Amino acid sequence: MNVYGTAELVRVALTYPAIDNHAHPLLKAEHRDAFDFEGLVSEASGPSLTEDAIHTLACYRATQQLGKLYRLTGESTWEAVKQARKTADYDALCRACMEPTRIQCILIDDGLGGSSEYAEDYKWHDRYTSSPTKRIVRVEILAEGILKTIFDSQLSTGSINPYYAWIEFLASFSRALEESAADPEVVGFKSIACYRTGLNVVPDVNDEDGNRVEQCVTVVMLRYEVTRTLRLADKALNDYIVNSTMRVAGKCGKPVQFHTGLGDSDITLSLSSPSVMQPLIKAYPSTKIVLLHSSYPFTREAGYLTAVYPNVFLDFGEIFPFLSAEGQAGVVKQVLELCPTNKIMWSTDGHWWPESYYLGTLQARETLWKVLAETVHRQEMTEAQAIGVVKRAMFDNANRVYGLNLEPRWHPE
């Protein structure tokens, strides 16, 4: 066998149906240029995105791959890629990007900022998959919506009462979580505590913590009265939201995804490592926890957690296409160093642009294939075992963890 494996391993890696366990909606046609396209290859913002990201190996590779997809003639450049997609028919562009992915089912977090204004509804994406799209509920956004409704109601009367706002929030948020848990369209929850106050969530909330949460609601309400903006970034309140979600999710058997590692400048990097989640993981042994984005650059820490805690799973997404090819291979190798292969799941973290789904799938399949083929070549595993890893990572594990009960729709070529 050569270093890249047999035809069977290649075929399975490149064509087996996939469940995209973490993604976001695509933009509506009329808003297709609402965000800088450089966001396809970077989480940065401002000049770091528009001026620096285009000089990364990740962007150079994406440029060449998209040039082939768009059938550009001559040397592909980033500007040529942007111009080609700008003039393409949007539906044709979406289909050209989605059809080669062989994604059978997408689990969409539709709470990403801007989704309600610029993006399509999650069910709209069914046109590109053979199994229905399902929802992941972003709990901080759910909580913000509830608080905004409560605050607006009080402010409209000209008198505010933070205590009553807090009491109403407790009941409304609990009820909203229970309703989401009972909704068959919802297959899991997601927390972005990593962005707001860090992953060092304090488990449980005692009376003293409860007082601090009430104080946070008061501060948030007074701030909202002045600014009319609402973004929950007060630790006691954010920890309360996560704990409430963990309890409900554990009771209903639905996983909780956590953004870990790779993100933008809002993140405090030292608090984005999943290693600081150990107290939370231990406190909720019955709640399935999915660590998103390979936890890069803390992949080894994430692998350790999946190896020693039965309720922890690892998603290896977003590194495609954000890292160089060598970087992606290195991360996948780190994932496989210690993580049980029945606990890894792939995703695109696709968002806004169909190209994010295309590159996220193309690069992931190729990387997984090559890493596993090299391992087989070194006689550290059999080809049959490598094929099993691919099927579990791309489909079977997510199917089981999220309770989707799907059959892979595969027609080998």
Q: Which helices and strands, and how do they pair?
A:
Blueprint: H1 7-15, E1 18-23, H2 47-52, H3 57-69, H4 78-87, H5 90-98, E2 103-109, H6 115-118, E3 134-138, H7 139-156, H8 162-182, E4 186-191, H9 193-196, H10 207-227, H11 235-252, E5 256-258, H12 278-283, E6 289-291, H13 299-308, E7 312-315, H14 319-322, H15 325-338, E8 344-345, H16 354-377, H17 383-401
Parallel strand pairs: 1-2, 2-3, 3-4, 4-5, 5-6, 6-7, 7-8
Helix pairs in contact: 1-16, 1-17, 5-16, 7-8, 8-10, 8-11, 10-11, 13-15, 15-16, 16-17
Could you please describe the fold and organization of this structure?
The chain is α/β, with parallel strands linked by helices and 413 residues long. The chain has one domain (7-401): TIM Barrel (Alpha-Beta Barrel). Helices cover 51% and strands 9% of the residues. The longest helix has 24 residues, at 354-377. It is globular and about 70 Å long. Pfam families: Amidohydro_2.
